[in-house]
Amino acid sequence: MDTKAYLERIGYRGRIRPSPDVLRRLHRRHLLSIPFENLDIRLGRPIVLSENSFHDKIIKHRRGGFCYELNGSFAALLRNLGFNVSMLSARVAEKDGAFSPDFHHMTLLVQLKEPWLADVGFGDSFTEPKRLGIFGPQTDHGRDYRFIRKDRWILLSQRANRNGPWEPQFKFSLTSRKLKDFAPRCRWQQTSPRSRFKKSQICTRLTSNGRLTLTDTKFIVTRGGKKVERPLKNPEEFGALLRQHFGINLN
């Protein structure tokens, strides 16, 4: 991995010695610079789980990716900087209250003096790493996040405001995994008719005051808590907005 090129890709300058502050800054810069997107799946381009593939796609060709790519790539960067990082399997909460199978999502455990959960591959979620040893609410840009232990699992939930309900995000164990362990589920995400990534395209990125989200049918701009949606006029507009707001040219 070209660590210098990676740091330039996310616009990071400053100290790199492992610490909670450096982890927070790297995490946020990653979310501001590299979008969550599933564009290759709709194009029929296979996603290969290897650090070389991640670097070629995300750094060299200035693309984004989905959880395995984004968190897999971020884990490699952190290791190169001297952080102690483990990849964890997570099961994502579904609307009916059930959870997806193991390896449906990859999240990261970063061990400093205390354990931290880092995740740059879950779309619209926390912007800074969360302390795993804290089981009360942790505030992050207007939202609260908390961990609850249930049997061998740790459940991450979030709420939009202090009077709102807690919504489960995903649950995970602290068993360290290897990149190859996620390969079967990654293939399922790319090929199964039941995979949501096969059904629609999405590209979304954090901004300094909100979020940009582009789908097959609409463009959503969130600023200061206010969301504005507008439908796309035609398929060509998708490509134009992708280039303009995310710097991605699929041609």
Describe this structure in words.
The strands form two sheets. Strands 5-4-3-2-9-8-7-6 form an eight-stranded antiparallel sheet, covered by helices on one side. The model has no long low-confidence stretch (mean pLDDT about 95). The chain has helices at about 5-10, 20-35, 40-45, 50-60, 65-80, 185-190, 195-200, 235-245, and strands at about 35, 85-90, 105-110, 115-120, 130, 140, 145-150, 155-160, 165-170, 200-205, 210-215, 220-225, 225-230. α4 (about 50-60) packs across α5. The protein starts with a helix and ends in a 5-residue tail after the last helix. The chain is globular, with a radius of gyration of 17 Å. With about 250 residues, the chain is of the alpha+beta class.
Taking strands numbered 1, 2, ... along the chain, how are they ordered across the largest sheet? 5-4-3-2-9-8-7-6
End-to-end separation: 26 Å
Percent helix, as a range, is: 25-40%
Oligomer kind: single chain
Helix-and-strand structural type: alpha+beta
The biggest beta sheet is recorded as: 8 strands, antiparallel
Shape annotation: globular
Per DSSP, the total helix count is 8
Which value, in Å, is the CA radius of gyration? 17 Å
Low-pLDDT segments, ≥5 res? none
Q: What attributes characterize this protein structure?
A:
single chain, 251 residues, alpha+beta, eight-stranded antiparallel sheet, five-stranded antiparallel sheet, 30% helix, globular
